[in-house]
Amino acid sequence: MLKSDDDLSLMVASIFMKISGLWLAADDDEQRRRNITLAYTISLILFSVYLQTTDFYHSVDDIGDCLYIACNILSASMSLFKIVVLLLNRNFFFALVVYLQRKFLRSNYDVYEETVMNECKRTCFIFITVFTFFTQATLASYVIRPIVANIGRNASDRILPFRMWMDLPLTVTPYFEIMSVIQILALYQIGVCYCCFDNFLCITNLHVASQFRILQYRLAHMNNARMNKEDETSDMMSSYRVYKYSVAFKGYVKEHQALIAYCDKLDEVFSAMVLGQVLMFSLIICLDGYQILMAEATFTRRIIFIFHLLTSISQLFMFTYSCDCLMHESANIATAMYSSPWIHLPNNKEGRMLQKDLILVAMRSRSPCCLTAYGFFPVTLETYTKVLSTAVSYFTLLRQSTENVADS
Global pTM? Predict the structure, then answer.
């Protein structure tokens, strides 16, 4: 028996989801705490978007600063967009979480099926660890940069993690310390929302893909209902075998239908978020590359965007790979049907009816389950290469534009 506590990746994802305020609650008191946390998260992210937008307005004359601030605005806006999308689909999202815990993590598996689930958990843990590490490294770089810059400066010349345009003496105590803490708290909530929803999406996709793999194995190894030549000599035994085969097959068809319905609901909840990410990733990767290679930035700022670029690339690969696995494993159900013992079915009415049912399942599997970008296109590993290619094109165009502006 697998337990959710054994899945470290799900444990880490649930911790970050609780910090964001969007997670299951055991009672009314816990739900109130979740609501307060959610309001706190949204307020800090809105504050960050306002902060960066006003800074962008006052920096329009400096193309380097504008591109730096634009990257920050995109990251904060993406976190806000994700939390709004899931907030609007909160009930459906919680239903997905409950079904994942009850059906995928609490089922009895044989040796092969446990191997599949353990492989899935290892893959999830690797993805979550790498992505979370780069996200936390990016947040730490944002915090360390002003600390390093303030070394040797006096109290009237200190800088905050992010510039603020307010009629207050922000460089002196206690204003400086108060605003630094608020900005760091807002930065951390943005980082949490930036990664936690993608963590859960990756975990869910890979677990559903593993369930399709397990279903393939079960369809191809219905040994307890397999026909053999000795059974064909007895009409009674043949009927009994067909009955056993039919009962097992109907159970697996119900499992297939449940997985298809789960994938449809998963696409309904996350498709808008996926579309936003696919559209934003090209811009974010482009701006990250510009800040690293082209901008006249300090060393600490380059370190920020090196980690930010690694975060974006790992995030993009993580969710496109998981979507690709889901698509291919659902399509492989058709191959598993051909590997099932259908050839041993007797050539009678019951046997022919079962063969037609097998064909229907194989035909349905030719339309694989997938996660789409709001219905425009399915997300696969090909999406990963297209986004990177688009980001390179944007980077080339941006470099030429900034060079022309500099020359003029």
Answer: 0.91
**Cα 341 from Cα 358, distance rounded (Å):** 11
pLDDT of res. 408: 64
Note if the bond before 174 is cis, omega within 30 degrees.
yes
| Token code pair at residue 239 | 């009927």
Q: What is the pLDDT of residues 240-297, one digit of tens each?
A: 777 777 888 888 999 999 999 999 999 999 999 999 999 999 999 999 999 998 767 7
- CA angle at residue 212 from 206 to 213, to 5 degrees? 90
- Between CA 117 and CA 124, with CA 118 as vertex, the angle to 5 degrees is 90
Please report, as a single letter, which amino acid is at residue 86: L
Q: Of all helices (H) and strands (E), which one includes residue 332?
A: none
Q: Are 316 and 280 in contact (CB under 8 A)?
A: no
| Tokens standing for residue 190 | 């943005």
CA distance 323 to 206: 8
**Enclosing H/E stretch for 9:** helix 8-20
In which residue are the tokens 């559209």 written?
279
Question: Which residue reads 């986004």 in tokens?
Answer: 387
Measured in residues, the chain has a length of 408
Type of residue found at 63:
I
Residue type, 389: S
Q: From CA 274, how far away is CA 86, in angstroms rounded?
A: 12
Q: How many CB atoms lie within 10 A of CB 251?
A: 11
